[in-house]
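user: can you give me the structure for this one chain? tokens are fine.
assistant: on it. calling the predictor now.
[tool input]
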Amino acid sequence: VSAGNGCGHTLLTPHSGTLSSKNYPGTYPNHTMCCWQLQAPPGTSLLLAFGDVDLEPSEHCALSSLLLTDPHTGTAYGPYCRNSNPSATLLVTNSSTVTVLFNSTSHHSGRGLLLSYATSQHPGTHYTQEYVSSDPPLTMCFSVYCPAGCKDIHGDIWGNPSQGYRDTSVLCKAAVHAGVIADELGGQVTLSREKGITLYESAFANGLRSKRGSLSEKRLIFHKACDDVLEVVTFNASSWWHEVGVLGQDRAWMAERAALSTTGHSWAAEPGAEAAWLELDLGTRRNVTGIITKGSSEQHDYYVTSYHVSSSRDGKNWRPYRGSSGQEEKVFEGNADSQGEVSNAFIPPIIARYVR
């Protein structure tokens, strides 16, 4: 939990999380405070990674301070500010509960703080890297644990899931964009550092827009367990649009025209249809890890801006997709124009024959 008027972007889960001061990385406000209570599962301990601690210097950190305490043992870490920074980027505690307290009085400068944490079950955060192999020798493969809450932290990413990412990209933010972890959960990712390419193309995926980037010496490639295109046996829909042009010519926007590679017009529901749906029959039960959507075509500027997903094993009983939070039906962010492709990952995957 967090409380106070000085809290910035915060996402806390039992296993990992990310927190920052208000306005980070802009100057934090005067006369604010925030108190975060971090709670790990019983039997585990918390590891905290200091991404950035930039608080105006003062004697005994009196003007602005970051103080971490273990309420059970009374152990304190800090206070920290610019003339008294943490001695290491990783703080290993022996406690499952830590209180993080940030305070400011009148000051002139400072970005504030960015901090992430994980539990002793997941010791590596995105500030440490555990090398797995290097085969072939030019490729460096490693595994990192990304905490929850990386999607909205400050920093840029360049590239996309198919090409890879410029190595200056914020690594865990790129992992959310690539669809290998869900932002609300975090998780372990495996990736390789390979030879860079001349140009990285921008893409919109999993609620994030990457930038177009220039040549880099190295690039990051995320490893996915499954990345094959599934064959759709039959397309079905709630309705389809039978368009009659001004000169009386017919155009049928039927369900089977929904396949991504179809040239010309796509599927469209009957104009004015409420709660339209498109249904895919995969022929047999499959493991579905994501979806790519695109608008109708450049001549017809139609596209879907958001959608829900449900699945069925028998075509009769439907289960709404709730995502990794498991609480409410997930709304996927769709397209913003009729040309670009938008990817959304299913974390966890859907196991079903029918998808709507």
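assistant: here you go. The CA atoms of residues 59 and 114 lie 22 Å apart. Helices lie at 171-178.
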